[in-house]
Amino acid sequence: MGELTVSPAGRRTPEYRWLQPAELWETAERPGARRSTRDWVVDSLCFLVALAWTLVAGLDLLQPEPDIVPQWTDTPVWLAWADLLAGAALTTALWWRRRFPVQLAVLATVSGTFSIAGAIAGMIIIFTLAVHRRFGVTAVIAVASLAGNAVFAQLRPEEGVSFAESLAWSTVFLAITLLWGMVVRSRRQLVMSLRDRAERAESEQQLRVSQARAMERTRIAREMHDVLAHRISLLSLHAGALEIHPSAAPAEVAGAAGVIRASAHQALQDLREVIGVLREPASDDTPERPQPTLGELPALADESRAAGVRVRLELQVDDAATVPAGTGRAAYRIVQEGLTNARKHAPGTTVRVCVAGTPGTGLTIDIRNPAPVGARPAVTIPGTGTGLVGLAERATLAGGRLTSGRGADGEFSLTAWLPWGQPGVAQ
């Protein structure tokens, strides 16, 4: 058995895990690999059993009248000694049976043509071959062993037993050994295959979790970007007002400066949250993020009014508390982006925001503002030009739709519809 290492999934697995499952049992114990405690116990038992049989059979054959092993006719002394030495060699070789299963199986096949003392050791080696080598190699050795058994039955016939009966019994023992070894091999391959599948499934699950976390963090960062853009637009608007009216009353200047300071502080906080979401590694603790709802639209309108934007908000929503969180958050973002666009492209106009809906019919958001009068102001709020694209994507992902454009009278409209099912009905 190979040394144990820690796999990516955290499990302790053999060092030969770099092999594919189909090739795993084609490689036996590698040079320098240390045996486990179980291997030492199994190898010691095999060695002791084979050694006991070798001593009993070999010494009994050297006695004039053998009475323990079956009586073999015409066994000269030199053959009995050769039998004992072959059995001792095979028994000693059992310590390397995992490293050299094919070579030892060939040696066991050759010695099996004349040796009785090496029978148990030979069976153990054949069993090891069936466990650690594919069926093709095992089949070749099995055919060679059958031929060796036929030679043994011819060279050393047992008294009172015919050649066919002796060959049949040796074939039965060989078949049992091979089948047992192949069953063990198949079971080990099945266990390894199931373990590989489990580890692969766990790795894929961890990858999916990591991807989901990354996507969630990106989505959170995008939402924070919307909030940050709103703060900065207010900041730019107040700064522009101070630049246009430098002779305003000190109280107005102080008020505008206070709003600028507060907006800058909030924008800085939002920026820190965005950077924190993007930099912190994914963990089980979800980062804190703003979760606006439909009930925060009046506060959003008041914030825009404080910046000098004329906003007329109409909420015609039955039981706003039952609006799904995702729908309410999407509606808030759409209204927020609509107000931001109005401040950018139509300063000084009145923005009409109408949010209406009932469970079952959906939530309708309508934002309208007339075209600006006069020349375009010198101070403008920079933008990326993708705000409406992002809103359309958000509405689509929520299961709704969004349209925008300027009418024949020059009025710009932003209309969205979001699904709002019946309470208690799965969406």
TrEMBL record:
<dbReference type="GO" id="GO:0046983">
    <property type="term" value="F:protein dimerization activity"/>
</dbReference>
<dbReference type="GO" id="GO:0000155">
    <property type="term" value="F:phosphorelay sensor kinase activity"/>
</dbReference>
<dbReference type="InterPro" id="IPR011712">
    <property type="entry name" value="Sig_transdc_His_kin_sub3_dim/P"/>
</dbReference>
<feature type="transmembrane region" description="Helical">
    <location>
        <begin position="104"/>
        <end position="129"/>
    </location>
</feature>
<keyword id="KW-0472">Membrane</keyword>
<feature type="domain" description="Signal transduction histidine kinase subgroup 3 dimerisation and phosphoacceptor">
    <location>
        <begin position="216"/>
        <end position="281"/>
    </location>
</feature>
<keyword id="KW-0812">Transmembrane</keyword>
<dbReference type="GO" id="GO:0005524">
    <property type="term" value="F:ATP binding"/>
</dbReference>
<protein>
    <recommendedName>
        <fullName>histidine kinase</fullName>
        <ecNumber>2.7.13.3</ecNumber>
    </recommendedName>
</protein>
<feature type="transmembrane region" description="Helical">
    <location>
        <begin position="135"/>
        <end position="155"/>
    </location>
</feature>
<keyword id="KW-0547">Nucleotide-binding</keyword>
<feature type="transmembrane region" description="Helical">
    <location>
        <begin position="40"/>
        <end position="58"/>
    </location>
</feature>
<keyword id="KW-1133">Transmembrane helix</keyword>
<keyword id="KW-0902">Two-component regulatory system</keyword>
<dbReference type="InterPro" id="IPR036890">
    <property type="entry name" value="HATPase_C_sf"/>
</dbReference>
<dbReference type="GO" id="GO:0016020">
    <property type="term" value="C:membrane"/>
</dbReference>
<feature type="transmembrane region" description="Helical">
    <location>
        <begin position="78"/>
        <end position="97"/>
    </location>
</feature>
<feature type="transmembrane region" description="Helical">
    <location>
        <begin position="167"/>
        <end position="184"/>
    </location>
</feature>
<dbReference type="InterPro" id="IPR050482">
    <property type="entry name" value="Sensor_HK_TwoCompSys"/>
</dbReference>
<dbReference type="Pfam" id="PF07730">
    <property type="entry name" value="HisKA_3"/>
</dbReference>
<keyword id="KW-0418">Kinase</keyword>
<keyword id="KW-0067">ATP-binding</keyword>
<keyword id="KW-0808">Transferase</keyword>
<keyword id="KW-0597">Phosphoprotein</keyword>
